[in-house]
Amino acid sequence: MDTRGRDLRGKRAAPAGSLVRRLLLLAGLGCALLLIAGCGQSQGGQSTLHPASDQSRKILHLFWGMLAAAVVVFIGAVVLLAISYRRRNREGIPLVEAENEKAVSSGLVVAFGIVIPVACLIVLFFIANIGVVKATDAPAPGQTKMNVTVIGHQWFWEVRYPGSAAVTANEIHIPVKTPVNVTLKTADVIHSFWVPELNKKVDMIPGHPNTLELYADHVGMYRGQCAEFCGLQHAHMSMAVYADPPAKFRAWLANMAKPVAPPASPQAKAGEQVFLTQQCASCHTIRGTSARGTIGPDLTHLQTRNTLAALTIPNRKGYLGAWVIDPQHFKPGNKMPGLNLSGAQFSNLLTFLEGLK
Ligand SMILES: [Cu+2]
Asked: How far is the CA of 228 from the centre of ligand 1 (A)?
């Protein structure tokens, strides 16, 4: 700082400057608190801090261990820095070459710069790779009784149950306390499947199926998210894993495997015709009808889902109608176009969709 600069900062400026600094510090602390608050359960079960399986508990322990090691190393570095700063101030001389050499020869630099970091990294490497990575790996094929296949699409998840005709989207049901082997594939680009409370994140790579074990300690809903940027609507590509009591799960799967029941009313029948003739059928499958499209989610049992469009909106009549009229409003850029239907076509179609139980 030159003398002119010092003159300009008058005596009155100093307290004002420190007030601004204090306010900035307070604001920063406030932001940090808000950030930490975001780690809670606000998203409805998508927190790495609330593990619900052995695998995610091991990942959490590894996280705490690494954080503790990082905190110790960080505090050590700050203390050393403070010591050197005080010494320099007291002696009134900057650290010169000679002192640097003294530090090297006294072994401090070697200890803190090489030995301790290498030891820390080796220990953490073995704990992470031999402990946690192995423990969270999926079992070999055939080791679990339950298998599910999840296929990533821009921007929803197709869910299949090998050995059953059941196909659904975005909401994956599994029996509680049962290891489930999940095969992860993609229909287009790279996606990543991550349900933080149940297990690690595994990529879906074109042409290379990966596997993951899902296991849930207790009944409930566990939220998940695509964790690899996959295009415009990546942020609206969520999924939910429902861990059900085994009997409830079996009933759910049996219903999902069935083709759709015939339309219950003349309006629903007319709505089915709209669905089959107005392009819907070229993108969507409804088992039990001639609709066999594979671009969009299977709609056979649409009403068994709680949400639409990969957890973007609730599955209620108003939202369903609004989605069919203008899907680009909720997910701009998604692969479903709005179609120009007449009022009567639309209301019959909605009645038909409402009956897909
Ligand atoms: Cu994505």
From this structure: 5
